[in-house]
């Protein structure tokens, strides 16, 4: 999958793209079908919400499941990244972020580069986030909020918040968020399952609590140019992967072997 020239311009201007329903319902069902077993594993790569005991994020999935090992090389994710970055990339992080119905907690305002730079020694803000919505995401169940154009601003001051949630995060000063939001507004990244989100490493984003009766799960692949790899490998492999092999896209039907037959889906 290649991006159009208009999409490339929009990504450069806004810092993000929302591409509706790029993965089919059957492909999304196959991805979701792997999650219960992975969430049930007693693994430090599964981060649990402090209050509900629900999984908040499950990481390192391509090292734990063969479908995800193929998904991180899917051309509908990898080809746009290679088109944008114009150089070989490695798999930096793979996870599914979850906001369970009624209990899913906030992700504070942040840009991912703050963590990549402070924790991993990544020197340049070149990584790309490639997401797939695995549930219907609406304004009610904790969608991602984007601050358009914030990736083009000077570096955002950040500090490590290890108290608000069970996942320590380098978060952005709220005065900075207010300044940018009042100038350029906010966008809520909603959509049907299978929708793809692409956004830059310095884009300010966050998401609210899920107060609704509907779960919200999002698959996240972060790729980074091999030339921009970590210089301080202090975090465990499931948070920033050590394998710097350049990602080669598979065939577009690489999930076909995991997809249930139509009769099975309708049973």
Radius of gyration over C-alpha positions, nearest whole angstrom: 17 Å
Strand content: 15-25%
Mean pLDDT: 94
Low-confidence stretches: 263-267
CATH fold naming: Jelly Rolls
Explained architecture:
This protein is of the alpha+beta class. The protein has a single domain (5-266), classed as q2cbj1_9rhob like domain (Jelly Rolls, Sandwich). The protein is 25% helix and 24% strand. The chain has helices at residues 5-14, 25-33, 35-40, 66-71, 75-85, 112-120, 174-184, 262-266; strands at residues 16-19, 46-48, 55-59, 89-99, 107-110, 128-133, 144-146, 158-161, 169-172, 187-189, 196-200, 205-207, 216-225. It is globular, with a radius of gyration of 17 Å. The two termini are 32 Å apart.
Describe how the helices and strands are arranged.
Blueprint: H1 5-14, E1 16-19, H2 25-33, H3 35-40, E2 46-48, E3 55-59, H4 66-71, H5 75-85, E4 89-99, E5 107-110, H6 112-120, E6 128-133, E7 144-146, E8 158-161, E9 169-172, H7 174-184, E10 187-189, E11 196-200, E12 205-207, E13 216-225, H8 262-266
Main attributes?
disordered C terminus; alpha+beta; four-stranded antiparallel sheet; 267 residues; single chain; 13 strands; globular; Jelly Rolls
In short, what is this structure?
With 267 residues, the chain is an alpha+beta fold. It contains 8 helices and 13 strands. Strands 1-11-6-13-4-3-2 form a 7-stranded antiparallel beta sheet.
């Amino acid at each position: 999958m290649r991006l159009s020239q208009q999409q490339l311009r929009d990504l450069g201007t806004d810092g993000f793209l929302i591409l509706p329903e790029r993965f089919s319902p059957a492909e999304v069902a196959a991805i979701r079908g792997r999650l219960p077993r992975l969430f049930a594993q007693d693994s430090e790569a599964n981060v649990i919400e402090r209050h509900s005991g629900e999984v908040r994020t499950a990481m390192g999935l391509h090292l734990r499941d063969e479908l995800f090992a193929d998904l991180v090389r899917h051309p509908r994710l990898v080809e746009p990244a290679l088109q944008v970055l114009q150089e070989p990339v490695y798999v930096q992080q793979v996870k599914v972020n979850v906001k369970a119905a009624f209990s899913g907690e906030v992700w504070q305002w942040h840009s991912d580069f703050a963590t990549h730079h402070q924790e991993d020694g990544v020197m340049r803000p070149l990584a790309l986030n490639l997401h797939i919505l695995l549930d219907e995401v609406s304004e009610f169940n904790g969608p991602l909020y984007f601050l358009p154009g914030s990736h083009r601003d000077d570096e955002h001051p950040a500090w490590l918040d290890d108290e608000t949630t069970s996942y320590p995060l380098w978060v952005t000063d709220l005065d900075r968020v207010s300044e940018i939001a009042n100038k350029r507004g906010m966008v809520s990244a909603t959509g049907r399952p299978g929708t793809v989100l692409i956004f830059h490493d310095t884009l300010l984003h966050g998401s609210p609590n899920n107060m609704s009766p509907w779960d919200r799960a999002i698959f996240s692949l972060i790729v980074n140019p091999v030339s921009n790899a970590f210089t301080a490998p202090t975090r465990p492999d499931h948070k920033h992967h050590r394998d710097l092999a350049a990602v080669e896209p598979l065939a577009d039907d690489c999930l076909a072997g995991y997809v249930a037959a139509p009769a099975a889906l309708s049973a």
